[in-house]
């Protein structure tokens, strides 16, 4: 059922409800999760990303940037992920009012992005990109921690809230693809910052309506033990596998739109290709909780890596075959959504309580940050060989390495443990 609370509708849930319950430090049988408020942040954050990821390279092209310059610019996006998440989550952990850090970060994201409304000379585009990307990348790991404090031990139901981010992405990538294409004679990619600005403004509004779950994390976990957990072989394997997955996405996030444009696809068709993957992503977020109730999250991590390996190989070999590309894009549901949900589930297990924010920061910083930077730079260098084919084949190889690591370090021990338990007297 729903009830009115400060800041919007809230869902009051029992233990048998399909929407996440919150078993945190309260003495009531029915707990309250601010589903609408949590979902709204994912909606607006990923709606903006739905404009940025597919179309930002087209905007930079409209500004007269070369392929090399674009690869550097997108590399800055990932470079800020190396330091921004861990910096922001560390500041939040040390703050008596950590929610202020989320709100400040969102306001600074909006203000710094507004710089792109100006006709900046190309040299000034780089520092503007650094500042904007720093704050944009800083806020989501902290918000993931906020969401998990509300879900508590029901972290497997995270997808029911996160799915709104996918829906926002779908809506924007479809609408903006149509708007940018216009009548087909001239591109409107130069107007992209004006189109994105309202989305960041709505994200700020959502940030001011959200907060951490009361009391959660204040007595759980010891930050001093964080690196002891990280050094455990399964945890190290998890971070390395996540790193390889993000490394494999380098060509996709940096040049997929340019790659498709090179093979003669219209902007509206490009929007369809981006959308199809996220449509299937929605289905994964709605249903994956059932998988986690029956199987260890590491199995889904393995499936995601294998899926990405096949996807990038197909993208490299059959770019001009639209039906095949649509099938390949549907694999985004596993390579991104299933991977992400599995990562959140494993982080909740490895890093309880106050440690979760640190775990989020490390995942975003090392996997998305370092992995993303190297992926973009490697893609930029390999692009020169044959206009992207080799770059996507390299991405397939990176995902394969991650899959092998995941299997031997995480999945195989589970198989052996199950066999041992079956043969135990």
Strand fraction band? under 5%
Structural class: mainly alpha
What is the CATH third-level topology name?
A: Growth Hormone, Chain: A
Q: Please state the overall shape, judged from the principal axes of the Cα atoms.
A: globular
- Give the count of structural domains: 1
Task: Give helix and strand order, one letter per element, not per position.
Answer: EEEHHHHHHHHHHHHHHH
What can be said about the biggest beta sheet? 3 strands, antiparallel
Are there runs of 5+ residues with pLDDT below 50, and where?
1-30, 216-221
- CATH hierarchy: architecture: Up-down Bundle
What is the number of E strands? 3
Q: What strand line-up does the widest sheet have?
A: 1-2-3
The name of the CATH superfamily reads MFS general substrate transporter like domains
Distance between the termini: 48 Å
Name of the top-level CATH class = Mainly Alpha
Number of helices: 15
Helical residues, percent: over 70%
Radius of gyration: 21 Å
Rounded mean pLDDT score: 84
Structural overview:
It is built from 15 helices and three strands. It has helices spanning 35-62, 67-94, 99-113, 122-151, 159-181, 192-209, 226-230, 233-248, 250-262, 267-294, 297-317, 322-330, 332-350, 355-386, 389-423; strands spanning 2-5, 8-13, 31-33. Strands 1-2-3 form a three-stranded antiparallel sheet. Mean pLDDT is 84; it is low at 1-30 and 216-221.
């Amino acid at each position: 059922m729903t009830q009115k609370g400060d800041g919007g509708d809230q869902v009051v849930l029992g233990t048998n409800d399909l929407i996440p319950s919150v078993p945190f430090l309260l003495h009531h049988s029915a707990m309250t999760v601010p589903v609408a408020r949590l979902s709204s942040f994912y909606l607006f954050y990923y709606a903006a990303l739905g404009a940025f990821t597919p179309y930002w390279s087209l905007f930079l092209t409209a500004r007269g940037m070369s392929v090399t310059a674009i690869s550097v610019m997108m590399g800055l996006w990932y470079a800020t992920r190396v330091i921004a998440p861990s910096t922001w989550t560390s500041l939040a952990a040390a703050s008596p009012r950590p929610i202020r850090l989320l709100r400040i970060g969102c306001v600074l994201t909006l203000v710094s992005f507004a710089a792109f409304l100006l006709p900046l000379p190309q040299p000034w585009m780089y520092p503007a990109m650094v500042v904007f990307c720093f704050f944009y990348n800083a806020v989501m790991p902290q918000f993931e921690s906020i969401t998990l404090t509300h879900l508590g031990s029901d972290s497997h139901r995270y997808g029911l809230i996160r799915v709104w981010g996918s829906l926002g992405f779908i809506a924007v990538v479809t609408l903006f693809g149509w708007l940018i294409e216009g009548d087909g004679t001239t591109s409107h990619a130069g107007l992209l910052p004006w189109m994105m600005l309202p989305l960041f403004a709505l994200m700020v509004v959502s940030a001011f309506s959200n907060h951490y779950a009361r009391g959660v994390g204040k007595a759980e976990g010891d930050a001093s033990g964080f690196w002891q957990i990280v050094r455990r072989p399964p945890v190290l394997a998890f971070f390395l596998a996540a790193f390889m997955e993000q490394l494999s996405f380098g060509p996709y996030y940096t040049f997929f739109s340019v790659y498709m444009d090179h093979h003669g696809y219209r902007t509206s068709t490009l929007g369809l290709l981006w959308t199809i993957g996220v449509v299937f992503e929605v289905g994964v977020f709605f249903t994956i909780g059932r998988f986690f109730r029956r199987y260890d999250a590491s199995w889904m991590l393995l499936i995601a890596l294998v899926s990405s390996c096949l996807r990038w190989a197909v993208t490299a070999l059959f770019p001009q075959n639209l039906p095949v590309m649509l099938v390949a894009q549907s694999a985004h549901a596993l390579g991104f959504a299933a991977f992400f949900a599995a990562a959140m589930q494993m982080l909740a297990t490895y890093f309880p309580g106050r440690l979760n924010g640190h775990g989020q920061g490390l995942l975003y910083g090392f996997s998305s940050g370092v992995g993303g930077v190297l992926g973009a730079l490697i893609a930029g260098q390999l692009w020169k060989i044959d206009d992207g084919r080799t770059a996507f084949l390299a991405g397939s190889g990176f995902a394969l390495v991650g899959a092998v690591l995941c299997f031997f370090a995480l999945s195989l021990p589970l198989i052996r443990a199950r066999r041992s338990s079956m043969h135990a007297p």
